[in-house]
């Protein structure tokens, strides 16, 4: 235990990056961006579902993946909403 390596704060795992940089994105902007992205995923999934139903689908696997991505994105946004509501309720419980 004489040598303990310094932990690197610039970890890059897939698309997740932890860098100590100052950016102007606040929570509201990030949330709006994610909501717009979720909406785009849902619209793509709706089109893929329509194509599957009408038989116009060219690549069934790609359409299925599009639908699954939209479902996962929606589940993530629901969890964010649930956590925000839980945090709000916790704040209401605090006494001043």
Offer a few descriptive terms.
96 residues, two-stranded antiparallel sheet, disordered N terminus, mainly alpha, 2 strands, 65% helix
For the largest beta sheet, what order do the strands appear in spatially?
Answer: 1-2
Helix-strand category: mainly alpha
Between the first and last Cα atoms, what is the distance in angstroms?
46 Å
Mean pLDDT: 82
Main sheet characteristics: 2 strands, antiparallel
Q: What sequence of helices (H) and strands (E) makes up the elements?
A: EEHH
Cα radius of gyration in angstroms: 20 Å
Q: Globular, elongated, flat, extended or rod-shaped: what is the shape?
A: elongated
Low-confidence stretches: 1-8
Helical percent range? 55-70%
**What is the number of beta strands?**
2
Oligomeric state of the chains present here: single chain
Beta-strand percent range: 5-15%
How many H/I helical runs? 2
